[in-house]
Amino acid sequence: MYQDEDSEFKGPDGKIDFFRALEVLQASVDNGVRCIDLSPPIVEAFNILQDHNDGEIKALGALQEWTCKNFVIDGIPLAEYTERIKTNVRSKLPLSYLSFLEHSNAPGSSFAKSFFEPKVPVERLTESEICRIRMKPCFFEERLELYRKLNVRLVQFGGETADWLIVLGREDLLKNFTQLIRSKGFVPILICHLASLVLPVAEKELDVAGYIVPLNKLWGLLTLSQALDTIRSVKKPVIAMKPLARGVLADDLQGAFAYLFKKAKVAGVLVGVSSVSQAKQTFSTLARLLDSSSKRRKRDSERK
Questions:
Q1: Residues 235-267 pLDDT 10s
Q2: Are the CB atoms for 287 and 281 separated by under 8 Å?
Q3: With a cut of 70, which residues of the chain have pLDDT below it?
Q4: C-alpha triplet 17, 59, 13: angle, nearest 5°
Q5: Would 164 be classed as within a structural domain?
Q6: Which of 141, 219, 240, 298 is at a distance of 20 to 30 A from 151, taking alpha carbons?
Q7: Nearest to 252 by CA among 293, 216, 290
Q8: Is 130 within a domain?
Q9: How far apart are CA 1 and CA 204, in angstroms?
Q10: φ, ψ dihedrals at 168, nearest 5°
Q11: How many other CB atoms sit within 10 Å of the CB of residue 155?
Q12: CA distances in angstroms from 58 to 28, 50, 190, 289, listed in the order given
């Protein structure tokens, strides 16, 4: 469920409209959804949804912080270093790729640039500063306790923090994060953006059950071809987020989903919806595609 500042689920006070959220969640479930991306603002609605559906709906807990306040350098959140870290990320990218993006209006280029194009020229983080990055576990431990009470086992973690820590060479912090999640009895799934940079390291270093990365028929990161090659090379399942290219493919749901499941071979998709009608259209289309694929596989198996 889309929950940014301009979300249609939010009222004048900035809080989630409980009844509207529940209505959209139920419409999603009625059209085949069996797992909800669960952030704290919709917990109450999720509990009611569970009661209405005999507890059959699963949830994916959210530990990622998009603003990175709980990884710090000398007590200062990494969010305060955003522009400098973007400069570090930029320094790791091929010049040919940067040159291409500089002159590109291709779909996804502006999204890609947001991860490594600082607003103003700034210095990179120094090696000393990078070595002093620490995790403050209290926030994550409290969030895990909330999910324990809700009987949630799967949790996603990372976000832009994962991109940053991998590029900065601090995958040890993500390894510790993974161990914390496992020690509390949860199953971790890494969510990140720079798939072709992050997943090869994560596959070697992190004990995670799978990955969530941006991917659609128009773009992936760093490039669509690199993202596809990376996804095919990892052994763990991959879930695609941004499957509709931030709304660009909303008029081609069938084609968008078919590409991801048939060509990219993803294990699932993470889709945000904002209304009952959108939930019905999106998830009924997806359900038909998956049902058709399942029947085709069954026929092929019977022929053998």
A1: 999 999 999 999 999 999 999 999 999 999 999
A2: no
A3: 1-12, 14, 297-304
A4: 20
A5: yes
A6: 240
A7: 216
A8: no
A9: 32
A10: -80, -5
A11: 23
A12: 13, 9, 18, 21
Question: In what side-by-side order are the strands of the sheet with 133-135?
Answer: 76-77, 71-73, 133-135
Whether 93 maps to a domain, the answer reads no
Instruction: Give the domain extent around 211.
Output: 18-70+137-303
Pick from 141, 132, 238: which is nearest to 183 by CA?
141
Number of domains in the chain: 1
pTM of the model: 0.93
Show the tokens assigned to 71: 């990884």
What CATH number should be reported for the domain holding residue 59? 3.20.20.70
